Amino acid sequence: MRTSRNITLMLLFGWALFMTQSVVAAGGTVAEQDQVRLHVVFNNLPYKAGLQTEWGFACLIDGLDKVVLFDTGGNGDVLLSNMQRLGLDAEAVEAVVLSHIHGDHTGGLDTFLARNPDVTVYLPESFPAAFGREVIRLGAAVETVSAGPRQLLDSIHSTGEMNHGIKEQALIVDTPRGLVVITGCAHPNVANMAEQAQAYLGKNIYLLMGGFHLGGRSDAEIRAVIKRLKALGVKKVAPSHCTGDNAIRLFRDAWQDDFIEGGLGAVIEVPR
Hints:
It is built from nine helices and 16 strands. By secondary structure, it is α/β, with parallel strands linked by helices. The chain is globular and about 45 Å long. The protein has helices at 2-12, 15-19, 76-85, 103-106, 109-115, 129-137, 190-201, 219-232, 245-255, and strands at 24-25, 35-43, 57-62, 68-70, 95-97, 120-124, 141-145, 150-153, 156-158, 162-164, 166-168, 171-175, 178-183, 205-211, 236-240, 267-271. It has one domain (2-271): Metallo-beta-lactamase, Chain A (4-Layer Sandwich).
């Protein structure tokens, strides 16, 4: 019975579509309670030993009014295990934001909700209606996010659903240092998503992190994206997941000391 339920949820939560450093302190010594902390809890790129890597992405944000989980990776058991090993309480999460429908970003949701259903799940409007109904059946509340930027929670915003083939939203955290923009896969182009975030709130981007979807792209294509992000004034970058090894190398070269490791287990702290 459990196996049958898992198979059904895997298909519903986008699996079919999927098949086609130590703590980094971002500026100064600040008391822990005055930090926004970005914990990479699911990633295919390793960083901290003792965690299980698997294709996908998830990031937990704490230090704000609410604890937010952005994406859930592709395997809920791996997600919860990594969180436990990192000392993070799944039951403390109050909101889940999903970037796009692919299973490497949504596949862990059912297992997560079995542990903590007392959350609001923010879904792009393009998600199948059956997806939202299943989330509600599992005990969570649902809010849909349409095209155009909007505020989700205090200091937490969305770029809104952006369309460049695969519809996707990025998460924006508004901090005194500037915006933190987190992308799941950046299918609509990471530079487009960064530009939308900056234009929406009228603030510079302090940190851009997550999957940049540049694996397999030519050096010229990657450098064109880097040029646009540099023109925006993006201060720091932490690319991972689907960015690709070559693109990560080029971002490291371009940002030098402002390049931050963003693999599994990385914790990025931004003063608030």
